[in-house]
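Reviewer comment 2.1 asked that we show a complete input and output for one of the modelled complexes. We chose the iron/sulfur cluster case, as it is the one discussed in the main text.
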Amino acid sequence: MRALDTLRGRAISMPEADVDTDIIYPARYLLITEKRGLGRYAFHDRRSDPGFPITDDMPAAPFLVAGANFGCGSSREQAPWALADLGFRVIVAPSFGEIFHSNCFKNGMLPIILPAPTIARLHEAARAGAIFDLDLAAGTLALPDTGPFRFAISEDRRQSLLNGWDEIARIRALHADDIARFETVQRKAAPWLWTTEGHHD
Amino acid sequence: MAEQIARTLYDKLWDAHVVAGQGEARALLYVDRHLLHEVSTPQSFEALREAGIGVHRPATQLAVADHAVPTHDRGSPIGDPQARAQVALLEANCAAFGIEYLPLDGPGQGIVHVIGPEQGFTIPGITLVCGDSHTATHGAFGALAFGIGASECGTVMATQVLWQEKAKRMRVRFTGTPGPHITAKDMVLAMIGQIGAGGASGYAIEYAGAAVRALSMEARMTLCNMAIEAGSRTGLIAPDETTFAYLAGRPRVASGRAWEQALASWRMLASDPAAQFDREIEIDLGSLAPQVTFGTSPDQVLGVDEAIPDPATASPAAARERLAHALDYMDITSGRPLAGLAIDHAFIGSCTNGRIEDLRAAAAMVGDRHVADGVRALVVPGSDAVRRQAEAEGLDRLFTRAGFLWRDAGCSLCVAMNDDRLPPGARCASTSNRNFEGRQGVGARTHLMSPAMAAAAALTGRITDIRAWH
Ligand code: SF4
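Response of the prediction step:
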């Protein structure tokens, strides 16, 4: 996974609330079985709306300032994949759809939750073309003239992003014994969960 | 002592699956069951291939194609080459990794969330995941079930565990006695309307109250299915005799002594009387009217007899804009009631309302009526077993005689990934779960409602208050 530590750049402002994953990545493009190159389908059915911030010729911006409940709806990981392909690494919003929020971390992207008044200032700054400044190790996001705004993130998620850890490899390296121990106990305590495998014993 | 602390059902399920912890808030959870479908797993299998890893416990995984599959001409190859390739890829991946695949033309096929319970793959007390946000459906059995993304599908296959943040606990109690036409769909839509599309975000919902206890398993699944539409990944109902009766004798459920052991354990799965919830919600069913959505988010919902709100009276400004945008997209004016609004499509199906009871409820509205002129109405069973059961009861003939189209099982118009898509501007009475922009086709307009309400709309060509109908 791509590591993330500090990041400077512009932001796109999309204040609309409840932007769901069907808007971010329309279902008909889910027939594609790749995970790369999906940016061209992101917000496909909205791009021609007047004033919609995502356009074919928008300026490069690694930050997206979004509205409440961003990424609600389906679990499709194509939503973060497509946003990443558009160049976004950090999405800041008052709240997120939970599965989308969790999917971001699996792809070297950082969803940041900040209070609504702070987000309102970030929208203004984004529209004014301000340069945003992320320091993940410090847990801060700053603008040239304000901040830093401190955000919460669990320590292992921070370390995963900072180091670009691969989740599967890390679980296998650190927790193989824990898993084996759990399985031994469950097999005794809840044998009905193991009946299929039981035949091969 | 830990066991003396009163715990909710969610806590009990969580505690029973912690493999390793990082304090209270985050744990590595063991995953007992994983359902796979064609759309969310190609990239997961690819990740395993790239890492050179096999599946840890193939017997805990079950795959089926549902999202992209056509619902007609099942005998012939899938027409859309992309969908054909995606379904073939699932089958090939399952064969390569030793996972059981329920074939498209076989008796086990259907929507993941319909076939899991049907097969007895879904049982109480387990953790169950699927690369699909409506996985909360399985919480109706007292299982900790939640949707995950494609990366996590790969993690589960490779390791059988997932890092999870513990949710806060919310109890939703339904009180009062519902009127004759009020279904689980109306109950859950009313809840979403009350707390909002993000209202349960960060919470695991447990549904409680006598009205919930009185529901069949099918209806409980409808209730849990839409937890995600209130922002929650998890909807739960404590298992009881209704649950056990549903499961007894199902293909993948243990039998004999193992069944007795399982039952004894399942009977412990309820929130302790003294357990504390972080939030309690009460919803009175006594005066509830059939619920219908009018906007582009499931929380934009009203009783069928209520008038569409006026954006001018909404505040703050963001809410005003959101409502105005939704009414504009839906081409609907404030002040008028939903009842009477003309529709040109109807869809009865999906993992929310595609089970046998749903089809029976829709069929009960038909009588000797016929689908209204200019309306295209689709009935899509949630699984092949539902289709066969409905046909054994003669429902297919009743529907087709009335002018409904009778189809094979799949997601169909719930997500419009197959060839069931609505044209721009179409207005659909739908039993599915999302009225998002473009969900049923670019520019199409969706009104969510119960199966009986959707059937009535198909027959009259208008959104209809079925309480005044019979
Ligand atoms: S029926 Fe709809 S909501 Fe259910 S699994 Fe299929 S696409 Fe998802």
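The first strand of chain A starts at residue 6 and ends at 9. We note this here for comparison with the apo prediction described in Section 3.2.
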